[in-house]
Specification:
mainly alpha; 12 helices; globular; single chain
Length: 273
Amino acid sequence: MTVIATAASESTNTYPPRTIGLTNVVRSEWTKLRTVRSTYWTAVAAVLATIGIAVLGSTQYVRNFRPGDLEGFDAANFVLQGLYVAQIALGALGVLTITGEYATGMIRTTLTAVPQRRVVIALKGLVYLVAMVIVGEILSFTTFGIGQAILHAKHAGVSLSDPGVLRVVIGGGLYLTSVGLLAFALGTLVRRTAGALASFFGVLFLPSALIDLLPSSWRADAIKFAPANAGTQILNTNRVHEMLGPWQGLGMLTLYGLVILLGALYLLGRRDA
């Protein structure tokens, strides 16, 4: 028995228990994201909506063009109008990224394999947001290029070297990422798809509608801090004086998402999966 005990002890010392490691967790989350059908469907919907609206809008503008139309025309913002539709599709993906695991019960398997709940959810969100940055920037630059190619037929287009244009195009991808952060945060907080989607649309759009009901003296001060109004300032070539600056507005929208996500991560350790 002494020999058996000694052998067991040596075996334990020779083969220490393995840990999964953060790299493997990231790889696992990336596999989950890219192998789910909803990822591809929402990405396709976002691409078709954004580029399709740019093509239709630019073609219609060129067809009905009059020289006076150039006054105050924001060509960069005009061709990126489809991002307002894309945010719905990609925001829904942010919700489904986390609520889908709760719906199938797979979240229990994930948290059993990686007991550090907050770490694994944070990494899940990081993988989704990195994907959002890449998809958002490619979509924004591609849409801009297509739209401007059509507008140049009437010399109404702009280039990336024009004042404020590069910021708008880069900001298009960053805006989608900030919206995605808000969606993922609400999905983590609510954990049910229907409720999280309702919360996402409510937090993003409802404050603007409610603020419009306030007296005009209050509305002017409050409207600039509404999530959608603040974030979309990054898509305007010229600053709207009554609103926050482009980067301030985007930062405000991002702050909403971060605060909600931090609250969701706090609650994650205090309730069952």
